[in-house]
Design goal:
Layout: H1 14-27, H2 31-34, E1 40-43, E2 49-57, E3 63-64, E4 67-68, H3 69-82, E5 87-98, H4 103-120, E6 123-132, E7 140-150, E8 166-169, H5 175-185, H6 201-204, H7 207-210, E9 214-219, H8 224-236, E10 238-243, H9 251-260, E11 273-277, H10 282-290, E12 299-306, E13 311-314, E14 320-323
Parallel strand pairs: 5-6, 10-13
Antiparallel strand pairs: 1-2, 2-7, 3-4, 5-7, 8-11, 8-12, 9-11, 10-12, 13-14
Length: 335
């Protein structure tokens, strides 16, 4: 029986990993692609490296509390560059638009995209537009590509992660997932939940040069913090333990997750970076993050130990829970 694509293949978890490994990497055996980083790093004659990323955005609905697909398209690509230690410079944007989509809506999306690019300090320098028949695109999809420069000497890699390092996140988790879900399902919370959609380059710029003890960074989008941490553990051959009581989760998100049977560790974020940092400089890095608006809620959430590629959660009740890649699809069309 022929296997078919499922929504879970786009969730950033176990099915995504299998799809990439069994379909794409077998046929596209480039060494840089196989690293599966947020951006490819390509050598330049100056000794610097070109960071190059691409992404697609199909979020439903395309407008949600705290953002929209235009804002998301810019920040998503900017953040993929920033977590590699790059200074984001230029973006391309390509639009697939369904016949009948209101031009006023498109104008508002492009206005939002332009405002986000200005805030992030990047320029949109090329693009493309395609229109498909009614029912062929569910409104609007946006694809971006971005480039930036990584200075010589900056080397952020999961291979650098080692026992004694600590794990830091720059703020409360799960907000983007709950914000999109609330808009999609018409849910009302006593305290509104807004997407954390934000340009991480404004927070991270220059940090790897200032703190060489920063080993690796990832933005926790699809699959959430748990999936990112599991991938880090596998790539570095270590074990990583998160501490449930140290996870920053706003009460409104925690209440929504309890009501809906969701786990904030696996919810998508669009303004959260997970950093692995040398334990000796972790407090200094944390203080710098907390002094910035996008890092005010930063916290140390775990530690790296000797191991074999496993991730765990130490629960508030004193137990230990195994963390794996997201299985299936918690929330489809989240970014």
């Amino acid at each position: 029986m022929t296997e078919l694509i499922k929504l879970g293949h786009g969730a950033g978890g176990l099915l995504t990993a299998r799809l990439i490994r069994e379909v794409f990497l077998r046929r596209l055996p480039d060494q840089e692609l196989a690293r599966l980083n947020d951006s490819a790093l390509l050598p330049l004659p100056t000794g610097d490296r070109l960071a190059f990323t691409t992404d697609g955005f199909v979020v439903d609905p395309y407008r949600f509390p705290g953002g929209d697909i235009g804002k998301l398209a810019v920040y998503g690509s900017v953040n993929d560059l920033a977590v590699m230690g790059a200074t984001p410079l230029y973006l391309s944007t390509a639009y697939i638009i369904e016949e009948g989509f209101p031009i006023t809506e498109l104008t508002e999306i492009v206005d939002s995209l332009a405002e986000a690019a200005e805030q992030a300090g990047v320029k949109v320098v090329t693009g493309d537009t395609k229109v498909v028949e009614r029912g062929g695109a569910d409104g609007i999809f946006i694809t971006t590509a971005g480039v930036g420069i990584v200075p010589a000497g900056v080397d952020l890699s999961a291979e650098n992660v080692q026992p004694g390092d600590v794990v830091i996140v720059n703020g409360p988790i799960g907000e983007h997932g709950i914000a999109v879900l609330s808009q999609r399902e018409g849910l009302k919370f006593e305290t509104p939940v807004l997407s954390d959609c934000a340009p991480l380059n404004t927070l991270l710029q220059g940090l790897p040069e200032r703190f060489p003890g920063i080993r690796y960074m990832r933005d926790a989008t699809r699959g959430g913090v748990a999936t990112v941490v599991k991938e880090m553990a596998v790539s570095s051959g270590t074990d990583i333990f998160l501490v449930e009581d140290d996870l920053p989760v706003r009460p409104a998100v925690a209440a929504a997750c309890e009501l809906l049977g969701l786990d904030p560790l696996y919810l998508a974020n669009e303004g959260r970076v997970v950093m692995v940092v040398d334990g000796e400089v972790a407090r200094d890095v944390l203080a710098v993050l907390q002094a910035h608006p996008l890092g005010a809620g930063a916290a140390i959430i775990g530690q790296v130990t000797t191991g074999a590629g496993n991730a765990f959660l130490r629960t508030g009740l004193g137990g230990t829970k195994f963390l794996d890649l997201l299985v299936g699809e918690q929330l489809p069309r989240i970014c």
